[in-house]
Design brief:
Elements: H1 2-32, E1 36-40, H2 46-58, E2 61-64, H3 75-88, E3 106-112, H4 120-128, E4 135-142, H5 150-157, E5 162-163, E6 168-171, H6 178-184
Parallel strand pairs: 1-2, 1-3, 3-4, 4-5, 4-6
């Protein structure tokens, strides 16, 4: 009986030790890229799903960009309002704030593609924070338009930061390919 007990304890120790090694390597890998923020604006929930999938893979802090103002429920009216806001350079007031942006080294920024560019909410976010010296990684959701000017416009609006041209672009809330994309960028949790 004692031999069985000692064997069981030894096996349990090996299993727990292996789990501990895995947990330590995950922590080390996410810290190798610096402190991570995943900021996103999501109108319909698609970009939020992608943000959560990225968060699950790389860890870090998840931040939803919320602003003043609302959109009509009817789709056509909503898209007309969004188009007008983009054309006029509208920047809504942020209702949520990042406590200490200076602590982050990498900032994933998520936006739907609206009329070929990032949303006014994401533009407000980019203009409200000093992202100098930070690596900014875009992730874009769309309903069929692809990336269009979203990543180049994000680069133009993000003064002093390094925006990755290898942003993730996906249809709706589909998260296919996110793991491989993150690995290609050097993020292994």
């Amino acid at each position: 009986m004692n031999k069985i007990f000692i064997f069981a304890v030894a096996v349990l120790g090996v299993v727990l030790g292996a789990c501990n090694v895995k947990a330590q390597s995950q922590t080390t890998a996410s810290h190798a890229n610096g402190k991570i923020l995943i900021a996103y604006y999501s109108y319909s929930g698609n970009t939020k799903e992608v943000a959560e999938a990225i968060h699950e893979k790389v860890g870090g802090d998840l931040f939803e960009i919320k602003t003043e103002g609302t959109y009509p429920e009817e789709y056509r009216q909503m898209t007309r309002q969004a188009q007008k806001e983009i054309r006029e350079g509208y920047r809504p007031k942020l209702l949520t704030q990042v406590e200490n942006m200076a602590q982050y080294d990498v900032v994933f920024v998520g936006s739907p593609n609206w009329w070929g560019t990032i949303t006014p909410q994401v533009s407000s976010f980019l203009e409200s924070y000093d992202l100098s010296g930070k690596k900014v990684i875009p992730f874009i959701t769309h309903g069929g338009g692809g990336a269009q000017n979203t990543i180049t416009d994000m680069s133009a609006q993000c003064k002093g930061c390094s925006v990755s041209e290898d942003g993730w672009v996906g249809y709706g809330s589909r998260t296919l390919g996110i793991s491989g994309w993150l690995e290609d960028l050097g993020f292994d949790k």
